Amino acid sequence: MKVVAFAGYSGSGKTTLVEQLIGCLRMRGLRVSVVKHAHHNFDIDRPGKDSWRHREAGAFEVLVASNQRLVLQRQFEQPAQLSVHHLLAEVYDGVDWVLVEGFKKSDLLKVEVWRKASEQPVRYPEDDFVVAIATDSPQDLPEATQRPVLDLNDPYAITDWLVAHEDRFDYNPPLL
After folding, report:
1. d(Cα 103, Cα 36) in Å, to the nearest integer?
2. CA angle 94, 96, 97 (to 5 degrees)
3. Which helix or strand (DSSP H or E) is residue 86 part of?
4. Higher per-residue confidence, 44 vs 124
C-alpha cells in the first residue's frame, strides 16, 4: 500500500484536499483508506445505541458490523500514545492508498498544506519528510524550495503527481 500524509495547521485545507483526493483516486479505480489524527475527545457513537451501551458497560472493544460497514471501537483504560504506525497497522491491507491527515511530526512522507491567509508558519524548511507543498499562494511561500509546489485548488493535478511518484510512497512499516 501507498501512504502519504497531509500536514498543516488547522484551517489550511487538509480535510477538503483529502476529501477531494479520495474521489480522484477512486475515479482511477483505487481503494483508499484514511487515517486522521484527532486532537480532542471524540465519539462516533450515540447515547442509547447498543454499541454505546456495551462500551459504557466497560467493554474494551466493541465491533459492529453489517453487510455494508464495520466499525471497531477500542476504549483505553489509560491514555494511550499511539503512533501513526500503530494506526496504519490497523488498516486493511487490501487498500491501494492510505491518506493520513495530520501527524505533522511523523516520519511519513508528507505534503504540506499551506495557505498564506492562515498566517501560520511553514514546516518544510525544517522537515525532511515534506516532499511537496500544496498551496494557493506559491508566490508567497516564505522560503524558496526545490520541492514540488502543487496547486491546492487542483486535486486532479495533485492526484496525477501522487500517482506519477507512487513508488516513493510504498509503506514499509517499522518494527513496533
Report:
1. 8
2. 125
3. helix 84-88
4. 124
